[in-house]
Specification:
The chain is about 35% helix and about 10% strand. By secondary structure, the chain is an alpha/beta fold. Strands 2-1-3 form a 3-stranded parallel beta sheet, sandwiched between helices. α4 crosses α5. The longest helix is centred in the N-terminal third of the chain and has 13 residues.
Length: about 170
């Protein structure tokens, strides 16, 4: 993406890690106890702190404690996770909200049950010479994949700062 123009920016306040933890426990409580553990593959789209809740739950044995045999699988970006869900390879995921909503709006059978973050929990990291949004004019920014959450977040940031991305 190339940046064309600029204005003021106010970063969103993102605080909801505890809400995510509570939602994960609610998700666990929603599954009834059975004599044998329910098996499931659970995909996550990023190696980031926003996805840490799934590893914490796994490492602390909370899935097993709630009679769930969970296999955590890293799939690098949301659109691939949504494709895996639509193919039947996955039943549930802890990410891919943007691609899931986009696919649902296009007629796919996906449902978002919960959202852990009421804001966008992303940070723009730049070189030292980039100190304000206007410094991005004429520069390029990197995203992992078009159509994914980071693409949406970058475009949202540019729209909020009146920067235009192409």
């Amino acid at each position: 993406m190339r940046i064309e123009s600029a204005s003021n920016f106010s970063a969103p306040n993102c605080a909801s890690f505890c809400a995510g933890l509570a939602a994960a426990f609610l998700l666990l409580a929603a599954f009834p106890q059975k004599s044998s553990a329910a098996e499931m593959t659970f995909a996550y789209p990023a190696l980031s702190s926003s996805q840490a809740i799934y590893w914490l739950t796994y490492e602390q044995g909370l899935f097993k404690k709630n009679n769930l045999d969970v296999q955590l699988v890293y799939i690098g970006y949301g659109p691939a996770i949504t494709q895996a869900m639509l193919s039947g390879d996955l039943k549930i995921t802890g990410g891919a909200a943007v691609s899931s909503v986009r696919s649902s709006l296009s007629g796919a059978d996906t449902v978002m049950v919960a959202n852990f973050f009421p804001t966008i929990p992303y940070t723009l990291v730049a070189r030292r010479d980039i100190r304000k949004p206007e410094d991005l004019i004429g520069k390029s920014v990197g995203i992992n994949v078009f159509g994914g959450t980071l693409d949406l977040v970058a475009r949202y940031f540019f729209r909020k700062t009146v920067l235009k991305a192409d």
